[in-house]
Design brief:
alpha+beta
Length: about 150
């Protein structure tokens, strides 16, 4: 069984501000006042139509142009880009957290990388659930499943 997610995550008010700026995408409310915008190829092309844009490191959807657009739109806000990909028990999470227009955390592919990113954003875990599960990120297994939620 696989799990695939590429998304921009932040407090819900930050996501609202980004959606008003880019005029594309779908907000998915999460727990603890957070929300995300799942990023598929169609949305990535709308936000970043420049086909010559370079991918940042090993990220699938995060390009230098998309990063620039996010930073221009969100300025001083704290937000993250997260990629998760698992298949048959192998895979990992990677992402970047920005605040004040600067990268404050970059996580290369690791099994627990999503929790580090979410913790930096301010997600609180419980004694039974890690940050990933506290936000409810396991309720769908693909970007497309998230995009079909509450159409």
């Amino acid at each position: 069984m696989s799990y695939v997610l590429q998304a921009i995550l932040a407090k819900e008010t930050v996501i609202d501000r980004l959606l008003a700026e880019i005029k594309a995408g779908k907000k998915i409310p999460l727990e603890q006042g957070f929300a995300m915008i799942p990023l598929d190829a169609k949305l990535a092309d709308i936000i970043d139509p420049d086909k010559d844009s370079e991918s940042i490191d090993d990220f699938i959807m995060l390009t230098d142009t998309l990063e620039k657009i996010l930073l221009e739109s969100l300025k001083e806000a704290k937000f993250a880009y997260l990629e998760s990909e698992f298949f048959g028990g192998s895979g990992g999470h990677q992402g970047i957290v920005w605040e004040g227009g600067k990268r404050i955390l970059k996580v290369s592919e690791s099994y627990s990388g999503a929790n580090r990113i979410l913790r930096e954003l301010g997600v609180r875990r419980t004694s039974q659930l890690d940050e990933f599960d506290c936000l409810g990120l396991g309720r769908h297994r693909s970007v497309y499943d998230w995009l079909e939620e509450n159409p």
